[in-house]
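Consider the following assembly input.
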Amino acid sequence: MSVAVTEIHKQDQKPGRSLGYVFRQREMGIVLALVALVAYTAINQSRFLSSQSIRDILLNTAILAVLASGMAVVVITRHIDLSVGSVLGLSAFAVATVMQHNQDLPMVAALALGLGIGAVAGVVNGALVHFGNVPALVVTLGTMYAYRGLTYSWAGGQQVTADEVPRHFLRFANSDLLGVPWLVIIALAVIAGVGVMMRNYRIGRELYAMGSSPQAAGLAGIKIARNTLVAFVISGALAGLGGVLYASRFGTVDAASGNGYELQVVAAVVVGGVAVFGGSGTIWGAGLGALLLTVIGSALAVLDINQFWQQAIVGALIVLAIGADRLVAVRIARSLRKRDSHV
Amino acid sequence: MSELRGRLASWDSAIIGVTVLVLIGASIGVENFGNSSNFTFLILDLLPIALIALPMTMIVITGEIDLSVASTLGLTSAIMGDLWNRGLTIETIMPLCVLAGALLGAVNGFLINRLGLPSLAVTIGTLALYRGLALVVLGDAAVADFPWTYTGWVTGTIGGAVPNVLIILVVLAVIAGVVLHATPFGRSLFAIGANDQAARFSGINVTRTKFWLYVVSGAVAGLAGVLWTLRYSSARADNGAGLELAVVAAVLLGGVSIFGGKGSLWGVLSGVLLLAALQNALRLQDVSGQALNIVTGVLLIASVLLPNIITGTRNALQKRRLRAAVPAQSS
Amino acid sequence: MRIHSTRALAVATASLLTLGLAACGGTSKGDETGGAGPASTAQADPNAALKEGLKIAFLPKQLNNPYSDVLAGGGEVAVGELKGEYKLVGPNDAAASSQVSYINTLIQQQQDVIGIAANDPNAVCPSLNQARQAGIKIVSFDSDASKDCRDVFINQATTQGIGESLAKMANELAGGEGEIAILSATPNATNQNAWIKVVEAELQKPENSKLKLVKTVYGNDDDQKSFQEAQGLLQSYPNLKVIVSPTTVGIAAAARYVSSSNFKGKVAITGLGLPNQMREYVKDGTVSKFSLWVPSDIGYLAAYAGAALASGQITGAAGEKFTAGKLGEYTIAADGEIVLGPPTEFTAQNIDQFDF
């Protein structure tokens, strides 16, 4: 942290660069934590770095990372989407059921269906938040119950099992392109796509602006209504996509799929350096957060540490991450004030 | 007069009305809903939610939130089981558990008010942390052999009609009601929620007030953990998982503004009762638990959406009336 | 102002603490046992006819579990034969407390018999005893409730029999020696733990002396968690020969993981599974042998036992006999247990004869 501060002093003339530098520092922190953790675990148990093990970790991260990318967009806009776990469940069950009855349907259709269901769920969330003027926390808490209830009513205790869905649908999650599993490729594509949108495109910058100050963004002529909808549609659609990937990877799907997943997704995003009060953080940070959480889970299992510690560690990490963000923000504010007084 | 009309039109009065209607309707329309043993079950089911909702109401009125309450309940339940296994007397364990809850609340209060971290994020973090610690304390074991004197008391009734635990709930609800609605301290909570800065300038110690609210919230969650454990004669790390959402839903349904500054305890208690009564009645009618999820979700959104729509239409009507009045005057 | 607010809070906190301290007798573990259920005083009348129109409700651990569905399905058939009213209710999650509300509802609805697979043997007890006080007969099946709060328990097979069968299959598949691991349900699942104890005892015997149980992990009967626990096992123990999973969720998840990884053919999966879920993995060679009782028979037997109780044919005392439709005659053993029979072993040869 002190390094960051001295850097700011050195680069007094270029505040934009120095801010960017600090935010990059935040992600460097996660990378360092990841490297340290992987190194320690690998020293104790060399099989941790075997290709099968790495493959498992990446596969386990993929779905979480896809959802975290969507959640990051919403959180950057100073909202939250607690319905993602339920949307994942709804999409997974819908897609598995449709595939069960239409064995010849291609994978692309399944992906499109999942994205579509998620997008509709996202539109409902976004519309209620913006036009209903209801806080996102309340709306998505409500739709979290409602979407889950919808899935339960539909499934009515039924389950779609691995032997009822088409072979090619199950193979998709486990097959590779040049040695990289499709699931991982999709996750990387999502992170890259959403990341570029948020970084380089007008809409992305507008979402950051809305998160920093909704009033100022409105006064500056940003289309708040459209952008809020866009943010929730992205989050919903990616949760829907996550549902397809979930169904394909696990094969067996019931109405409870993805129950409680929202917490893990929020944790990945927050640990990945996206500030809960909006306006800062990156998509690839959220992806790194997802990776870190998964690696922690795997490392605990491999190191034979009591698996009960896992959740406590995740919780402590979230608190730590929020604290670190706060510290960085305070330091920046202080150094900016200092610079102003010099002028 | 106009104050009375405003009172009648407010959401919390509306929710009290709806709750009374649902209770009357269910007593007439649903077989076995109105008998005394069902009333006991109803109270036992809503007890932990109602208890935790008391401090939660105050916290939300100050514009903050505490999502860690259910995990605090689970952790105190785990601690209770562990201490019982270590041979401590139950009379020592119970206050210790409440104290442990208060300490967990103090951790939240410290992070939020001393370090200035956002309460939503902090309590999502401690939600995971406390539940994790509960697993560390008790693992997946269940401790079940609590003394009948206490487990029997918690599930028992006075004269077959009034559940014993209702006394605890009524006493705490009255205390909370008086503190919130009839003391300067209570008014200061509304002031903080309405405008944090203004409250600070008018001499309210905002930081300290909020800190203590979290301590009380933790202590009450600890008490709820003790009662939960005794009710089910089962101390487990996963006790009460997901309960925080039911509490928040009840508080918002009861008319407390998520932005702070508005709400009443009576509205919240009606919200708790309404949700519990609906669930109970629907179950008696063999409506599946699945459909209950949808009802809860829709009610939650409606509780904020409807007042917004009503206010919106009222403002629009008022504007139109004003506009109509202006030409009338000029002519 | 400040003094005032602090005092108000102090009063509130103090009153909370006093509530906790309310009684200062000093009761600690072992001082007092839990309240016993109502003792049955009724006399059994073996010649009583089975009543028609009995309201028989089934309360499985949770609703969306295919195994529970098959169990309850058997019950539905039996209730149909008995000309009773069948009802199936249950929670969405397998938490200990969530069944209690449903028991209370069933009491209000004045059912005649409740068949329950208890999520927690003790948490459901107070409510079950209230039900018995209201004259409802309690038949536990699949996972027992504490024995002083139910009338009879339908045991799918004796604990000893299942444990021995698991140990035997593990021995055969490991070829007599090597590392084995167990992937169980939740760590406090009543029956899984009992079976695992028997397996551990079996491993002490000379014929199993070269088998080494390296670890028991818990997938919580959650598909994804079980899948990941299987992954973790194979990473930590590369020489593992057999994973024994005494739960249908666990064995299916473990088989799916192994069939899609490069451990296929190197590690054997066995345990208790549903033929429909396992058919694929038996056919692709991941699994060569697993066992289970026929689950629909459990529900069937539970319904008949409940009807016999409600008709006064039996009271739950040891030695009483009753006839359960197509399954024939059963005798109640000690502690109100009724044993269904030995488990069936499934292999590539016979699996297609079963559809459940």
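Chain B touches chain A through 49 residues (CB under 8 Å). Ask yourself how this observation constrains the way the partners meet.
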